[in-house]
Amino acid sequence: MSLISLDFGRDKSDDVLGTVCAVGPMGSSESENQAEIGQRLLAHGQLLLRAAKGEIQFTDDPSANRLLNDLTAHPHAFLLGCLMDRQIPAPRAWIIPHEIAKALGTFSMDALQRLSVADVRELMERPKPLHRFVSKMSGLFHSAIARVADVYGGEAFRIWAGAPSSADVVYRFLEFDGVGPKIATMATNILAREFKVPFADYYSIDISADVHVRRVFGRLGLCPADANVELVTYKARALSPQFPGLLDFPSWEIGNQWCRAERPLCNDCYMNDLCPSASSSTPNALRDTA
Ligand code: SF4
Protein backbone atom coordinates (compact mmCIF):
# COMPACT_ATOMS: atom_id res chain seq x y z
CA MET A 1 0.00 0.00 0.00
CA SER A 2 1.47 3.35 -0.94
CA LEU A 3 0.46 6.83 0.08
CA ILE A 4 -0.01 9.58 -2.45
CA SER A 5 -0.04 13.08 -1.00
CA LEU A 6 -2.60 15.52 -2.25
CA ASP A 7 -2.04 19.22 -2.27
CA PHE A 8 -5.15 21.34 -2.26
CA GLY A 9 -3.38 24.43 -1.02
CA ARG A 10 -4.41 23.39 2.48
CA ASP A 11 -2.97 24.53 5.71
CA LYS A 12 -1.41 21.82 7.86
CA SER A 13 -4.58 21.26 9.88
CA ASP A 14 -6.14 19.69 6.78
CA ASP A 15 -3.34 17.18 6.24
CA VAL A 16 -5.11 14.36 8.05
CA LEU A 17 -7.59 14.19 5.17
CA GLY A 18 -5.20 14.75 2.32
CA THR A 19 -3.99 11.32 1.28
CA VAL A 20 -5.26 8.55 -0.90
CA CYS A 21 -4.01 5.00 -0.47
CA ALA A 22 -3.20 3.00 -3.56
CA VAL A 23 -4.40 -0.52 -2.89
CA GLY A 24 -3.03 -3.64 -4.49
CA PRO A 25 0.32 -4.87 -5.72
CA MET A 26 2.84 -2.05 -5.58
CA GLY A 27 3.39 -0.48 -8.95
CA SER A 28 0.63 -2.34 -10.78
CA SER A 29 -1.20 -0.26 -13.36
CA GLU A 30 -4.54 -1.23 -11.82
CA SER A 31 -3.42 -0.03 -8.42
CA GLU A 32 -2.06 3.22 -9.83
CA ASN A 33 -5.26 3.88 -11.78
CA GLN A 34 -7.38 3.22 -8.69
CA ALA A 35 -5.22 5.65 -6.73
CA GLU A 36 -5.63 8.31 -9.42
CA ILE A 37 -9.39 7.80 -9.45
CA GLY A 38 -9.51 7.90 -5.66
CA GLN A 39 -7.36 11.03 -5.70
CA ARG A 40 -9.76 12.81 -8.02
CA LEU A 41 -12.84 11.76 -6.04
CA LEU A 42 -11.13 12.84 -2.85
CA ALA A 43 -10.24 16.23 -4.36
CA HIS A 44 -13.92 16.84 -5.07
CA GLY A 45 -14.83 15.68 -1.57
CA GLN A 46 -12.26 18.05 -0.12
CA LEU A 47 -13.73 20.97 -2.04
CA LEU A 48 -17.14 20.22 -0.58
CA LEU A 49 -15.76 19.82 2.93
CA ARG A 50 -13.90 23.10 2.74
CA ALA A 51 -16.68 25.08 1.04
CA ALA A 52 -18.45 27.74 3.09
CA LYS A 53 -21.50 26.52 4.92
CA GLY A 54 -24.74 27.15 3.05
CA GLU A 55 -28.34 26.10 3.53
CA ILE A 56 -28.74 22.42 2.74
CA GLN A 57 -31.49 21.73 0.22
CA PHE A 58 -33.02 18.62 1.76
CA THR A 59 -36.35 19.24 0.03
CA ASP A 60 -37.92 21.60 -2.53
CA ASP A 61 -39.77 23.41 0.26
CA PRO A 62 -37.92 26.46 1.66
CA SER A 63 -39.79 26.32 5.00
CA ALA A 64 -38.95 22.65 5.43
CA ASN A 65 -35.30 23.35 4.61
CA ARG A 66 -35.18 26.17 7.18
CA LEU A 67 -36.47 23.81 9.87
CA LEU A 68 -34.03 21.03 8.94
CA ASN A 69 -31.09 23.45 8.83
CA ASP A 70 -31.91 24.92 12.23
CA LEU A 71 -29.47 22.94 14.40
CA THR A 72 -29.67 25.66 17.06
CA ALA A 73 -33.38 25.74 17.93
CA HIS A 74 -34.58 22.51 16.28
CA PRO A 75 -31.66 20.04 16.10
CA HIS A 76 -34.16 17.18 16.54
CA ALA A 77 -35.67 18.07 13.14
CA PHE A 78 -32.44 17.00 11.42
CA LEU A 79 -32.29 13.84 13.53
CA LEU A 80 -35.90 12.92 12.73
CA GLY A 81 -35.39 13.69 9.03
CA CYS A 82 -32.48 11.23 9.00
CA LEU A 83 -34.63 8.60 10.68
CA MET A 84 -37.41 8.99 8.12
CA ASP A 85 -35.01 8.68 5.15
CA ARG A 86 -35.61 5.08 4.21
CA GLN A 87 -37.55 3.21 1.56
CA ILE A 88 -39.09 6.34 0.04
CA PRO A 89 -37.54 9.14 -2.06
CA ALA A 90 -35.35 11.33 0.15
CA PRO A 91 -37.23 14.64 -0.39
CA ARG A 92 -40.48 12.96 0.65
CA ALA A 93 -38.84 11.61 3.80
CA TRP A 94 -37.08 14.81 4.80
CA ILE A 95 -40.26 16.88 4.58
CA ILE A 96 -42.01 14.81 7.28
CA PRO A 97 -40.80 16.93 10.26
CA HIS A 98 -42.12 20.06 8.53
CA GLU A 99 -45.47 18.46 7.74
CA ILE A 100 -45.85 17.48 11.39
CA ALA A 101 -44.77 20.96 12.49
CA LYS A 102 -47.45 22.48 10.25
CA ALA A 103 -50.13 20.23 11.73
CA LEU A 104 -49.01 20.91 15.32
CA GLY A 105 -48.27 24.58 14.87
CA THR A 106 -44.86 24.05 16.45
CA PHE A 107 -41.93 21.64 16.39
CA SER A 108 -40.76 22.26 19.93
CA MET A 109 -39.52 19.29 21.92
CA ASP A 110 -42.09 20.17 24.62
CA ALA A 111 -44.95 19.72 22.17
CA LEU A 112 -43.45 16.60 20.57
CA GLN A 113 -42.91 14.95 23.96
CA ARG A 114 -46.60 15.27 24.73
CA LEU A 115 -47.53 13.13 21.71
CA SER A 116 -48.41 9.47 22.15
CA VAL A 117 -47.46 6.92 19.51
CA ALA A 118 -51.09 7.00 18.38
CA ASP A 119 -50.91 10.80 18.04
CA VAL A 120 -47.79 10.54 15.88
CA ARG A 121 -49.42 7.87 13.77
CA GLU A 122 -52.48 10.07 13.26
CA LEU A 123 -50.27 12.98 12.21
CA MET A 124 -48.40 10.75 9.78
CA GLU A 125 -51.51 9.11 8.37
CA ARG A 126 -53.91 12.01 7.73
CA PRO A 127 -54.83 13.83 5.60
CA LYS A 128 -52.41 11.76 3.49
CA PRO A 129 -49.78 9.18 4.47
CA LEU A 130 -46.43 10.87 4.91
CA HIS A 131 -44.45 7.64 4.62
CA ARG A 132 -44.84 4.29 2.92
CA PHE A 133 -44.62 2.59 6.33
CA VAL A 134 -46.64 4.88 8.57
CA SER A 135 -47.02 2.44 11.44
CA LYS A 136 -43.34 1.54 11.73
CA MET A 137 -42.08 5.08 11.19
CA SER A 138 -44.53 6.50 13.74
CA GLY A 139 -43.02 4.20 16.34
CA LEU A 140 -39.46 5.16 15.39
CA PHE A 141 -40.34 8.86 15.40
CA HIS A 142 -41.94 8.61 18.87
CA SER A 143 -39.10 6.51 20.23
CA ALA A 144 -36.50 9.01 18.97
CA ILE A 145 -38.24 11.91 20.70
CA ALA A 146 -38.32 9.92 23.95
CA ARG A 147 -34.60 9.11 23.63
CA VAL A 148 -33.66 12.75 22.95
CA ALA A 149 -35.68 13.76 26.01
CA ASP A 150 -34.34 11.02 28.31
CA VAL A 151 -30.70 10.77 27.25
CA TYR A 152 -29.93 14.21 25.85
CA GLY A 153 -32.13 16.40 28.05
CA GLY A 154 -34.29 17.33 25.08
CA GLU A 155 -31.29 18.79 23.21
CA ALA A 156 -30.47 16.63 20.19
CA PHE A 157 -27.36 18.71 19.39
CA ARG A 158 -25.68 16.98 22.35
CA ILE A 159 -25.35 13.91 20.10
CA TRP A 160 -22.57 15.74 18.22
CA ALA A 161 -21.54 18.59 20.53
CA GLY A 162 -18.02 19.05 21.91
CA ALA A 163 -15.98 17.77 18.96
CA PRO A 164 -16.41 14.07 19.75
CA SER A 165 -14.78 11.29 17.76
CA SER A 166 -16.66 10.21 14.64
CA ALA A 167 -17.06 6.75 16.18
CA ASP A 168 -18.85 8.26 19.18
CA VAL A 169 -21.29 10.14 16.95
CA VAL A 170 -22.00 7.15 14.68
CA TYR A 171 -22.50 5.02 17.81
CA ARG A 172 -24.96 7.54 19.29
CA PHE A 173 -27.02 7.55 16.10
CA LEU A 174 -26.96 3.75 16.06
CA GLU A 175 -28.49 3.74 19.53
CA PHE A 176 -31.76 5.13 18.15
CA ASP A 177 -34.36 2.53 17.26
CA GLY A 178 -34.37 1.69 13.58
CA VAL A 179 -31.01 3.29 12.79
CA GLY A 180 -28.46 1.10 11.04
CA PRO A 181 -24.94 1.88 9.80
CA LYS A 182 -26.23 3.46 6.57
CA ILE A 183 -28.32 6.13 8.30
CA ALA A 184 -25.82 6.62 11.14
CA THR A 185 -22.90 7.29 8.77
CA MET A 186 -25.06 9.38 6.44
CA ALA A 187 -26.16 11.58 9.35
CA THR A 188 -22.60 11.98 10.66
CA ASN A 189 -21.30 12.68 7.17
CA ILE A 190 -23.88 15.45 6.60
CA LEU A 191 -22.97 17.01 9.94
CA ALA A 192 -19.26 17.02 9.03
CA ARG A 193 -19.48 17.86 5.32
CA GLU A 194 -22.46 20.21 5.13
CA PHE A 195 -23.02 21.60 8.63
CA LYS A 196 -19.24 21.83 9.27
CA VAL A 197 -19.70 20.34 12.75
CA PRO A 198 -16.21 19.72 14.16
CA PHE A 199 -15.18 16.19 15.10
CA ALA A 200 -11.97 14.92 16.66
CA ASP A 201 -11.50 12.58 13.68
CA TYR A 202 -13.35 11.25 10.63
CA TYR A 203 -12.21 7.61 10.56
CA SER A 204 -15.62 6.10 11.31
CA ILE A 205 -17.60 8.04 8.71
CA ASP A 206 -18.05 5.41 6.02
CA ILE A 207 -19.34 5.78 2.52
CA SER A 208 -23.09 5.18 2.15
CA ALA A 209 -23.02 2.57 -0.59
CA ASP A 210 -26.35 3.20 -2.25
CA VAL A 211 -27.22 2.12 -5.78
CA HIS A 212 -25.52 5.14 -7.43
CA VAL A 213 -22.30 4.71 -5.45
CA ARG A 214 -22.12 0.97 -6.10
CA ARG A 215 -22.70 1.47 -9.83
CA VAL A 216 -20.02 4.17 -10.04
CA PHE A 217 -17.47 2.14 -8.05
CA GLY A 218 -18.10 -0.77 -10.42
CA ARG A 219 -17.77 1.24 -13.61
CA LEU A 220 -14.69 3.05 -12.37
CA GLY A 221 -13.07 -0.33 -11.77
CA LEU A 222 -12.69 0.24 -8.04
CA CYS A 223 -14.83 -2.84 -7.31
CA PRO A 224 -16.42 -5.62 -9.36
CA ALA A 225 -19.56 -4.54 -11.22
CA ASP A 226 -21.76 -6.56 -8.87
CA ALA A 227 -19.97 -5.52 -5.66
CA ASN A 228 -22.06 -5.58 -2.52
CA VAL A 229 -22.22 -2.89 0.16
CA GLU A 230 -19.38 -4.42 2.17
CA LEU A 231 -16.95 -4.48 -0.75
CA VAL A 232 -17.67 -0.85 -1.62
CA THR A 233 -17.43 0.18 2.04
CA TYR A 234 -14.03 -1.44 2.53
CA LYS A 235 -12.70 -0.17 -0.81
CA ALA A 236 -13.57 3.38 0.31
CA ARG A 237 -11.81 2.71 3.63
CA ALA A 238 -8.77 1.43 1.77
CA LEU A 239 -8.65 4.45 -0.54
CA SER A 240 -9.34 7.10 2.08
CA PRO A 241 -8.78 5.61 5.55
CA GLN A 242 -8.79 8.93 7.37
CA PHE A 243 -12.26 9.83 6.06
CA PRO A 244 -13.86 7.14 3.86
CA GLY A 245 -17.10 9.12 3.68
CA LEU A 246 -15.33 11.91 1.84
CA LEU A 247 -15.74 9.75 -1.29
CA ASP A 248 -19.49 9.52 -0.74
CA PHE A 249 -20.93 12.65 -2.30
CA PRO A 250 -18.58 12.79 -5.32
CA SER A 251 -19.46 9.16 -6.18
CA TRP A 252 -23.15 9.72 -5.64
CA GLU A 253 -23.07 12.90 -7.71
CA ILE A 254 -21.36 11.13 -10.63
CA GLY A 255 -23.99 8.39 -10.49
CA ASN A 256 -26.84 10.84 -10.28
CA GLN A 257 -25.68 13.29 -12.94
CA TRP A 258 -23.70 11.33 -15.53
CA CYS A 259 -23.21 7.68 -14.72
CA ARG A 260 -26.82 6.68 -14.99
CA ALA A 261 -27.89 3.06 -15.08
CA GLU A 262 -28.63 3.46 -18.77
CA ARG A 263 -27.09 5.84 -21.29
CA PRO A 264 -24.29 7.20 -19.09
CA LEU A 265 -23.13 10.62 -20.19
CA CYS A 266 -19.45 9.75 -20.35
CA ASN A 267 -18.50 12.72 -22.50
CA ASP A 268 -19.65 15.08 -19.73
CA CYS A 269 -18.21 13.09 -16.81
CA TYR A 270 -15.01 14.39 -15.23
CA MET A 271 -13.81 10.80 -14.75
CA ASN A 272 -13.84 10.15 -18.49
CA ASP A 273 -10.05 10.11 -18.97
CA LEU A 274 -9.47 7.65 -16.10
CA CYS A 275 -12.57 5.47 -16.26
CA PRO A 276 -12.02 1.97 -17.69
CA SER A 277 -15.68 1.86 -18.77
CA ALA A 278 -15.71 5.18 -20.57
CA SER A 279 -14.29 3.96 -23.88
CA SER A 280 -17.20 1.57 -24.30
CA SER A 281 -19.82 4.00 -23.15
CA THR A 282 -22.60 3.10 -25.54
CA PRO A 283 -25.67 2.24 -23.48
CA ASN A 284 -25.62 -1.50 -24.12
CA ALA A 285 -21.90 -1.90 -23.56
CA LEU A 286 -22.05 -1.13 -19.86
CA ARG A 287 -23.36 -3.62 -17.41
CA ASP A 288 -26.28 -2.21 -15.46
CA THR A 289 -25.57 -2.91 -11.80
CA ALA A 290 -28.50 -0.89 -10.51
S1 SF4 B 1 -16.87 7.97 -17.58
FE1 SF4 B 1 -18.90 7.11 -18.01
S2 SF4 B 1 -18.90 5.02 -17.17
FE2 SF4 B 1 -17.16 6.15 -16.26
S3 SF4 B 1 -17.95 6.98 -14.34
FE3 SF4 B 1 -18.21 8.58 -15.87
S4 SF4 B 1 -20.28 8.27 -16.70
FE4 SF4 B 1 -19.69 6.41 -15.58
Plain-language structure description:
With 290 residues, this protein is an all-alpha fold. The protein folds into two domains: 2-51 and 208-285, Orthogonal Bundle (Endonuclease Iii, domain 2), CATH 1.10.1670.10; 62-159, Endonuclease III, domain 1 (Orthogonal Bundle), CATH 1.10.340. It contains 13 helices and two strands, in the order ββααααααααααααα. It has a two-stranded antiparallel sheet. Helix 1 (29-50) crosses helix 13 and helix 7 crosses helix 8. It is globular. Mean pLDDT is 88; it is low at 1-16 and 281-290. Bound molecules: iron/sulfur cluster.
Give the helices and strands as they follow along the chain: EEHHHHHHHHHHHHH
What ligands can be seen in this structure? iron/sulfur cluster
Which structural class is indicated by helix and strand composition?
A: mainly alpha
As for the number of domains, it is 2
What fraction of the residues are assigned to beta strands by DSSP? under 5%
Distance between the termini: 30 Å
Poorly predicted runs: 1-16, 281-290
User: CATH-wise, what's the superfamily of the largest domain?
Assistant: Helix-hairpin-Helix base-excision DNA repair enzymes (C-terminal)
Major pleated sheet: 2 strands, antiparallel
Tell me the radius of gyration.
20 Å
Number of helices: 13
**CATH fold node name of the largest domain:** Endonuclease Iii, domain 2
Widest sheet, order of strands:
1-2
Helix content: 40-55%
Shape: globular
CATH class of the largest domain: Mainly Alpha
User: Regarding quaternary structure, how should these chains be classified?
Assistant: single chain
Mean pLDDT: 88
Examine the secondary-structure arrangement and name the CATH architecture of the largest domain. Orthogonal Bundle
Q: How many individual β-strands? A: 2
